[in-house]
Amino acid sequence: MARVWDWFVYDKALTTSVGSCHSIHHTSKMLPYFPFGQQFNDKMGTAPLSESDRLVEVDEHYLPEIDLKRQLLTELPSYYFQALPSYESAQWDVVNLVLHNLSRFQPAQFSLRVEGDNWHWHNHLLHEEITFTFGDGASLPQAPLDWVGRQVQEDLVLLSGDDATLVAGQLCFANDWSLDEKIGLPFWQIHAPIVPIVEPMMQAARKFMERLPSGRSFWRTNWSVKVSDQLDMTSRHTPALKQRLADRLPYLTPETIGQELFVRIERQTITRLPQSGAILFGIHTYQNLLAQEAADPERTRRMAQVFSTTPPAMLAYKGMTALMPALLSYLSDRHHSK
Ligand code: HEM
């Protein structure tokens, strides 16, 4: 196993610059993105991805995460993948972009040979090869977005039109939402009800989505703290996760909380697809045990600063209200004992 991931360790050292504005030095056991600064930030936090930045990231969790995704898609295909009719060309845009991106950044793991409309794809990590006709849905085993989503750890969502309506998605690892709830809704309604404190940010985000230039990618992060590290937190799990939080709450003392909670970070990318003009929203979910992040005093200090300045309505939205007393006391004890 170790040999398989040698390339990853090497590669990661070279590519931390992607997260440089949001992350600090980390070891492989720490989150690769750490979007906590001096205080709660109410800006949308989008930054351009450069030519040398990856659109999709492959890390040491690749195999188990792809396996989990495929299991979910087998069990409940129409819950985890949905597409409105007549957006097939946007789905092919995603195939084009993602396969070229993977093979450009990791040619030893992924290779793509394009001969006219005949495409040959070799995923060396999964030991899978396929030849298909670009643009011909019948030549792939699933819809194009569903197929390409099974090659990457990211959730992939497509938005289209002036109001950025959600028209298709493969969404397995969402944090408290699902395609059933959001498909067919425009950007603004996707985010409703909007916590008043972030309303200016969401207005800016709406304009940003409208004016997104073609062929360019941007990225941002989102954070939350969870009582479970299960990747699939789609809405069907919300009742069970709420129950788990209620059950664990009495045990979340400053002594135990570090082993009970997980910091969950989403690296989100936003790309206007050059051919169809649709928008691809990619979400890569990273998570780590709170105690592991809090092993770094600088990270402890920054989490304490951000959590203690996050408006209560935002904490409620993120489902963190009940955790806060124990969480803040844990972080401040650790910070002061260093
Ligand atoms: C610049 C772009 C964007 C910004 C600034 C933004 C910002 C936010 C913020 C502030 C929240 C509140 C929750 C939190 O912070 O934890 C949120 C939640 C959410 N965002 Fe976005 N977002 C953006 C793009 C998108 C896109 C393109 C989608 C497409 C599907 C999306 C889907 C969602 C969903 C589904 C939620 C959860 C809503 C719910 O609880 O029902 N976001 N976003």
From TrEMBL:
InterPro entries per record: HODM_asu-like
Pfam families listed in its UniProt record: HODM_asu-like (PF11927)
Protein name, per record: DUF3445 domain-containing protein
Provenance organism: Spirosoma endophyticum
